[in-house]
Amino acid sequence: MPVAARSLKALVAFLTYYFRYLRVSEALEYLRLAGADPLAAVRLISEDRTYSGRSFSFASRTTKTALKCAALAACHPKPRALVNRSYSFASRMEVVSRLLAAEGGSLSCTAVEDIAGLLTKSRRKLRGLAGVTPPQFHLELTRPPPFVPTKSLQSVLLDRVCGLYVDALARLPAADLRLRYHRSLLKAGHCYGPFRDPVSNIVLNTVWYEAMFPPREELSVAMICSRSLVLVACRSLRGLGFVWLG
Question: PIR2-like helical domain spans which residues (predicted)?
């Protein structure tokens, strides 16, 4: 496989492993908009999909895992060494950027030797890279976001709705949840209702259903199956769709 094709596979692998629900076709479209710059593509995806609680960091384990997956997708003979060298660059980003900013379009022999010297020096520890921000994240976004297929959007929304149910579970009293409210939450704990806060609607609908339709016999449970939680989240997501359409 040509080196350009392996590089493209690595870029796509990095994005699809960094973002859980990103499809290959979407990754290619974001790379096209970002001019094949993976970090610029990360910025575009984050802005487009409003990952407000998730900022890019070289110190993130997600970033390091995505880089390893990219190296493996490119069939690199030493993927771990490649990732370590990438972090060496990241820890000295300003110095390397100045060296790569060649005048006249070509690097001098001295600049190449300096870059090679930086790669052989020991880098900062992973947690020391937490404050390093790529220059792509300081630029203004001028490119329009690509079309995102409905299936991908549903996956993203479902993941967020499941997070709402986890928050609701944390609000309910643990003893009552194990004894009573697990049943009503799975049957009618929808996230839509009179409140603007969906977690409050889940709690309200759960308590209301338990009060109006109490079980014939009590059953205590130690946990709620994640599959059951996903099913009630799917029903809530469908209900939200009908609310907006209605």
Answer: 2-45, 160-240
